[in-house]
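Re: weekly structure request thread

Next one in the queue (159 aa):
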Amino acid sequence: MASIPHDLAAFLVEAKRRTYAGLDDEATVAPLLAGSKQLEHRAPPYAYRDIYFGMGFFAGQETVSRDDRIIWSMSYSGGAHAEITDRDTLLAIYKFLRQALLGVCVEAPYRGPRLFEQAGMVYRNEVEGTLDCFHGGETIMRHDGAPLYELHYSGGLLR
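Done, posted below.
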């Protein structure tokens, strides 16, 4: 098992709140990969980068580097259910998702909290493992139980 830097979880929480969850496209920088969205946050000695493709269904990767060496990564893919094609509905789901993701915590700095409810929607996040090696999934449903969104993620410390 790799040694987890004592301040990595706190940096991840700060980075996630200052990129997609808190700022959405306002945190976007010029992407390294054509057709992608790229979000970045720096607080030396750490730098966070989130690169993803797509909207309705998307896939991406987050990395954290320390002193210019990538030490942690998380890959993810998912999105709104295929039958949801209305742009306003998609935007409402992702606005709700960003609100849920603001609830990221130091104890589990991967995605959002275990449970978040607001605006007629319910967000659930289940994760196994620790910061050095983990996997999980999140869902969004309407209060009536209709599924709206699903995402899977995994990652850990690189060695």
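The chain has a mean pLDDT of 93. The radius of gyration is 15 Å.
Next request, please.
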